[in-house]
Amino acid sequence: MSASAKLPPFDAADPLGIDDLLEPEDLAIRDTVRGWAADRVLPYVADWYEKGELPGIRDLARELGAIGALGMSLTGYGCAGASAVQYGLACLELEAADSGIRSLVSVQGSLAMYAIHRFGSEEQKQRWLPRMAAGEVIGCFGLTEPDHGSDPASMRTHAKREGGGDWILNGRKMWITNGSVAGVAVVWAQTEEGIRGFVVPTDSPGFSAPEIKHKWSLRASVTSELVLDDVRLPAGAVLPEVTGLRGPLSCLSHARYGIVWGAMGAARSSFEAALDYARTREQFGRPIGGFQLTQAKLADMAVELHKGILLAHHLGRRMDAGRLRPEQVSFGKLNNVREAIEICRTARTILGANGISLEYPVMRHATNLESVLTYEGTVEMHQLVLGKALTGLDAFR
């Protein structure tokens, strides 16, 4: 740039000029998802959250399918074939509306559809993926159990062959997003061959999914228990291309990548609420944004928010290049969710007592992120993943 060239104006919404890294198609996808969320989620989500429900979830799923948001980074079978960065941008916009909406999309695409797409038979793919991509069938992913979260290798759900043919599944899964509205569940179980994944139609006799109530986080989201009592499945229900924990863990890594972006959406929403409030709320005769301590908070929040978005973008480019390692996903999930929670908490202090009101999104995002902090790997698990990668020493056991 020549000395006489005019610099672009400073943009408080994009202080680092990160949008310059995006292609026109990236921006178009981002704007499409942002517009859908502004129209179909933001006017209603505070009421959904207060009531602890997500009404019309099947209609929302079909609408998300219509804009290509379900399984969007997968190819074929009606999926959009979007880039990892484009999928990440969608996750950011969805979670800027609410973590529960992003969870609906993540579980559908990055867990249930991804498992079938990567490890399923052609028959399984043809049967389920087109309808899931269109939002006609909602999926869920059964790995976590009441007594086994961070240690899935110890799961008790088991499947046995009967006479070398059908499989009989028994067990319980817990904290399952989409469970009670799903038409298909990908369930992981112990077998004589090791841990295997099963594609389970939810109308199978012996399958039930009671919804979990009394949540104070992810309230605008369907969360269920899965109960499998002698569920009989044909031999073709097993995912044929994987045995062992590599299957579910690779699915989780894909979903965690979406969280790296999504958490920054919740942080951005809270930061924008605090910035707008600081510009207009007056105390001692002037806007509180004119006081040094408030400006220090806003500056620190902006730094961590946009560092997190840069990190997410970097990881997305690595995923698109086929170079993203699971440890790097742990790096992103650990940093971005932790910083997002801190941004929400700081934003709440700027809003003062108004910060606890559902008139503003801050407390809703903060409580949602407490769940995001835990699911798909707790803070401690991701710290240990990075610790092992850094030292070469395994501290898990």
From TrEMBL:
Residues 24-136 form the Acyl-CoA dehydrogenase/oxidase N-terminal domain. It comes from Streptomyces achromogenes. Coiled coil: none annotated. This is Acyl-CoA dehydrogenase family protein. It holds the Pfam family Acyl-CoA_dh_N. Residues 244-390 form the Acyl-CoA dehydrogenase/oxidase C-terminal domain. Its cofactor is FAD. The keyword Protein transport does not apply. The keyword Oxidoreductase applies.
